[in-house]
Amino acid sequence: MKSVSTVDSLNAQRRRAVQLRLAGETLAAVSNEVGLSTPTIIAAFKAFQTGGWPAVDVKPRGRRKQSANSTEPAAKLQESVVQTMLNSSGNTLWTTERVQQWLHAEKNTQVSVQTANTYTQQWGLAPPNLNRAARQAVQQNRAGAAQWMEGEFADFVNAAKKHRATVLWIGSVSCHDSHTLLFAQTQRGKSYWQLHPAQPNRQHYLQFVSTLSDVIGAPLALVQPSKELIALFNEDVASLTVATQIQMPSKLISSKAPNKNRQTAKNTTNTTNTTNTKLDATTLSEQSEQDKTMNQTEPTQPIDHLPSAEQQASNDDNIMNQAKQSSSALNPSAETLTHLQRLEAESIHIMREVVAEADNPVMLYSMGKDSAVMLHLARKAFFPAPPPFPLLHVDTTWKFQAMYQFREQLVKDYGVELITHVNPEGLEKDVNPFTHGSELHTNIMKTEALRQALDKHGFDVAFGGARRDEEKSRAKERIFSFRTAQHRWEPKNQRPELWNLFNSRKQSGETIRAFPISNWTELDIWQYIHLQNIPIVPLYFAAQRPVVERDGTLIMVDDERMPLNKDEVPMMRSVRFRTLGCYPLTGAVESTATTLPEIIQEMLLTKTSERQGRMIDHDAAASMEKKKQEGYF
Amino acid sequence: MHKQSEELIANNIEQYLNVHENKSLLRFITCGSVDDGKSTLIGRLLYDSKVLFEDQLSAMETDSKKWGTQRGELDFALLVDGLAAEREQGISIDVAYRFFSTDRRKFIVADTPGHEQYTRNMVTGASTADVAILLVDAREGIITQTRNHAYIVSLLGIRNVVLAVNKMDLIDYSETVFNAVVEEYQAFAEQLNIPNVAAIPVSALRGDNIIEQSANTPWYHGTTLLSYLETVKVDTDHAKQLPMRMPVQWVNRPNLDFRGFAGTLASGEISVGDAIRVQPSGKTSSVARIVTMDGDLDKAVAGQSVTLTMADEIDISRGDVIATTEAPASSADQFETTIVWMHEDALLPGRPYLLKIGTKTVTATITNIKHQVNVNTLEHTAATSLELNAIAVCNINTDQQIAFDPYEENRAMGSFILIDRISNATVGAGMLHFALRRSDNIHMQAVDVNKQIRSELKKQKASVVWFTGLSGSGKSTVANIVEKKLASMGQHTYLLDGDNVRHGLNKDLGFTDVDRVENIRRIGEVAKLMVDSGLIVLTAFISPFRSERALARSLVDDGEFIEVFVETPLHIAEERDPKGLYKKARKGELKNFTGIDSPYEAPENPEIFVDTSVMSAEQAAEKVIAELRKNGLIG
Questions:
Q1: Which residues from A are below 8 Å from B55, CB to CB?
Q2: Among residues 373-412 of chain B, which lie with CB inside 8 Å of chain A?
Q3: For chain A, what is the domain count?
Q4: Tell me: the pLDDT tens digits for B391-436?
Q5: pLDDT tens digits for range A379-434
Q6: C-alpha distances in angstroms, B474 versus B477, B508, B517, B567?
Q7: Which of residues 88-117 of A touch B (CB under 8 A)?
Q8: Which CATH superfamily groups domain B451-630?
Q9: Domain boundaries along the sequence of chain B
Q10: What interface predicted TM-score (ipTM) does this complex get?
């Protein structure tokens, strides 16, 4: 275990780093030698240049006075936290946040969540990241890993999504003087754990799951890594102990009535028992109560306290009706709301204002990720009622096949009303991006078609998923954007928007476009999709797809309508789409990102902005503004 | 700083996401005049926090060569200028919002331009800001605009202000100059109500003290701009400590068993079981559930959008405010306010506007402009109307009671916008100070003999027949004939026209827009009293503005207001010119003459329409009588 460095040793390192820099060593070499990160070395060196040797030491201001490092030796602190965890009740779940709070409350030490996480790892109290381990196993081509991840595991995650259940890894791992860490972990690596003096028994497991279910407040879908799976993992995870085993695909554990559960959970003296927790099917099984390592093979036995069939059925209804969903990050916290919580609340506020004041609102739905988020927010805004407006898809007939499939599935799953409009004249004249060019195609099949659809159904307010961060001229778009009876946008004549007071008044014939996710960035959208498990079109994930390269852009050959040039041969490449439009106009990017975190990772490390994949934006510098004036979003 | 997050992204995206989902959100505004370097500062923050993508950077490089003011060097300002028009002019013309984030916070920056339209745009941007950055050119020191901006910042109730003394590189990072600027600012800021001011010496162009401590200002020991922004307290945290308020947006009734009240908590906290009061009705109940799609909550805090259900079945509708019983909001219909005017058409006292506060929209009139504030000198001046960008303290009347808190205490509960009833434009924004208690002391005297009894005695239905049209269209002539005919039929009438009103009741009024509005308002009120007395009232005034005719209409009951549009093309009216007024107006001897240099807004849906260019006055009067009979106003 790495020890927490003291201020003195840190300062020694910093001084050493400056000496080496002065001696002409490269940053990388210095970093290697003293073990400090490059930015720290640069900062130390700059400090030296400005203020000489005394300035190299970390300033007392920069490091809080009651920092863990300065008040209590690391080992003592570690012992203290271990004791606290061992002594905490069976209804207590430890998380990085709780460690942070504990440090603050008990040790008078304020650290960030990130730092709390670092400490937890240093103390050896952090569970291994199983999701990462599984993906590493896939990357390293361990036999069977990919099959399991893409087959059984993917099916399980999808089944869980349908029930709006939170997918959690669950397991235990030994640490510290033969203590055992019983833990659960979300798909994005957030861990909940309890520390037990010995191997936890079945009762411990059940209580852990029950508490977990109360805390997360959603149906749980538990994944217990089988020993075969663990054998595929890297060494750091291979010490994993599995006391109970679950057959794949495992079933759901769900919690019932939210309120009562929560109150029970708060009252820690009142023992929560398994009546609050119901298992869907008899697949949770366990090994004998004493510690068994995965290397031991023993027959498994079913758990004997399962609910009756009726209970199970009513429980199932409950899952569907309540559509409860997990998100620890979006539950109210005692402290400041997070940025996603504020963005979500703002979007919901906007949607409710529109619906309260509009005569006949509609939501423009493009099947893209922004539309997906918008629809999810609309369902939240009017819950338990369904969104009180239809969705409108302006169909150019040139969308990807996968998008059409997704659209059909959506109507089935959510029971939303979806109106599809195709410009009949465009259809008659067979306007397409190949013979007519992208500009005319977009103009007729999108801009003109949208106007037709709004006029035809008499929609007076249309929700759009445009965001201000997408493009420069959009940064000035209002949230309530007024359009003349001719659907024109007049950038010089926009209504001022103050506080959260929106003016939705208009004459008959005039319309308003409302942009509830104006203030979201691309990262916010992805992060929210990730946190809330929002279904999106699979094209966003990388897969082998047939593409041709045109003018430096990869175009997917999605159907037989795509004319190929003489020397063009479609090639299978691992690609994905950062933005979805008409397939002949949407460029793919080469990628191996198959999960949301990987997509986000790729997005953050890539240096081209999102709309560049869309060929319609290339036409001219201020083209988007021109299109918007004409009525295109 | 960024290097580290890049490493984290590459090595442990899960942990990165964990950190980033716990970020808070801060909104701020940058204020400064044209050359203070606002856009450069924002561009610098975007550039240094690496939210820019390579294609945006290369576009900026191209643009810098084409439009840039930095002789080919990167012009950060070009990053943040959006619309084509402004690109050509080299100045931004509206409010734009920019986004960037660090490990600790996501930021939304309101970027507002610094020229004449500035007040409107800055007020807009400041209305949602937690923090304001006041940019000062170190070479210039505190100038008129700085005072102007600081005043607006204090007016909009922004609690945290950064005085960013920019262009330090051009004064050799002189501590003396910096201190002088700060002292000058403090002397001025004493008059204003800004609690927290942090002064930071920066160079937006060179990046000094923006993200990293600058080696050029060793004498400065405070925080950098970015670390200030990362740690300053956000507004929702402040709002959380105020008494609970939730304006109801939407009543959610998916079925008979569920009745939820949806809204965003404007302030405070609410828990299941808390006693609440509905305002302005005053009914009370307690919270049964706090419903969200993620499951019921035990508690909700300011800034969250939730749906509440109540323990009792009480009537609550959109526009009501749910408040804690311990400290409910005030309720009133007369207020002192500060109004910022945002439209080319001036604010006219007496003209009715729509006022939207929270989720409630009511009709409001400005009864009195107490004084206008000169934003540059803070001097108070008298005003009869407010032009674009004017700021004034005004008394205001609403047609219904509204629940509110003073803006100074609660931004969400004391802010409102004004909307023009005809054009639907957002014409003004305002902040409530306090209720005027006068309204409590005037009670309507209930009388036993009412309009109905008086009308029945006269065997008629009391009403206003409102003639409108250009001067010389024949309003008075036609109205005169109509009255004679009605009198001969035994009806009780009274004709109000220029002769009997302008010389008495309204002799203090001239012909400016402001006076015309007041003229018609008084006539409307007199006509209302006469209708109450059971009379058929005929009025013959040009009454050129739609909104004032709408006001007169709103004063009487439905069906009692008959608008008669006496139409005549301008050139025919001008030929007739019975009083020689058009001639004078054409010569410029008569100002503000309707049809010449003051607009006439024709009625869109008059009850009766007569065209005196194709019919005689007698025929027109016959038509009016016939229509009145058809509408059942006379027997």
A1: 607-609, 612
A2: 411-412
A3: 5
A4: 999 999 998 889 999 999 999 999 999 999 888 999 999 999 988 8
A5: 999 999 999 999 999 988 888 889 999 999 888 888 789 999 998 888 888 888 77
A6: 5, 26, 22, 9
A7: 96, 113-114, 117
A8: P-loop containing nucleotide triphosphate hydrolases (3.40.50.300)
A9: 2-233, 238-324, 330-441, 451-630
A10: 0.76
